[in-house]
Amino acid sequence: MSTRVETGRTSLGGSTTTISAAQTAPIRIHHLTEILCADTPALRRSLPEAAERALGLTAGRTADAAAIEAVLTPDPALAGPLISLAASGLFSPRETITSVREAVMSLGLEATRDALLIVTNGIAASVPGFETHAETLRRRALAAGIAARFIAKALRIESDHDFLVGLLHDVGELVLLQRSAEKGILPFGILEDPKDGPVVLDAIDVAHTRVGAALCRAWGLPPAVAEAAEFHHDRRAGRRGRLPSQLAAATDVIALHLTGSPCPDPTRQPIFSEVGLSAEAAATVIAEVEATLPALAAAATAARR
């Protein structure tokens, strides 16, 4: 069944031409991108206020668990899932955790930040009318975050932001989907249309790197995270020789392979040799991600309920 939606008519020599939503969507998505990238306060507001304040606290040098608890506890949509993730044993040895303060003390600042962004990414994935596609993006982001952590470990270049490089490098796709749906740019069912769907997805793909980078900067995340979001499809641009965009590009291959677009032999993708991973090492990372993803996805889903 076609989901093409008539958005207007033009008269050409006495004949009438119907303009579909897919024909106008790329222009409107481009316009939306310009607006978003020019409005840092609006991008900052896309993060719940309590989450923004808590992220600022996790950027400090010492863990002020009491301050983070004071910020998050009044917001059950953030506090509850954070406690659940901390107690799941995925970030630390399983133990009884019943409060935000206990979660922070158990996780530490870096893992608290990562867990909080997993929670907010899940909240953003609730796009009415586009739940299936948004859920695919959410699961793919989790796979990319895990992949970034394992790749960095294999290369012995672990940092405090490798997980976020993977988790958020495609966050612009989710934001554009959410905002486009809110503004009526995308009619219900358009992504499933065999003709219109690819047109819309291509428009989002073109714009998502700019939006993702602007969002990461607005949220005050490490520069490497914004760089990965901006250049992962053009990793030879920007600061030559920098790893974040290469790392994000490598996570793309793994995440796509494991969440919907299997590749016959993903270990032979050029990006792995580019970052310094042998085919054997890449195969090991892929296996580790495949083994870890179900538990993290289940914990993140359970935390949202």
Mind explaining what this structure looks like?
- There is one protein chain.
- By secondary structure, the chain is mainly alpha-helical.
- It has one domain: Hypothetical protein af1432.
- The protein is built from 14 helices and two strands.
- The chain has a two-stranded antiparallel sheet with strand order 1-2.
Biggest sheet layout = 2 strands, antiparallel
Q: Report strand order across the widest sheet.
A: 1-2
CATH architecture tag = Orthogonal Bundle
Classify the secondary structure makeup into a structural class: mainly alpha
Mean pLDDT: 85
Number of strands: 2
* Unreliable spans: 1-12
Number of domains: 1
Q: End-to-end span in angstroms?
A: 33 Å
Principal-axis shape = globular
Number of helices: 14
CATH topology: Hypothetical protein af1432
Series of H and E elements: EEHHHHHHHHHHHHHH
Portion in strands: under 5%
Helix content range? 55-70%
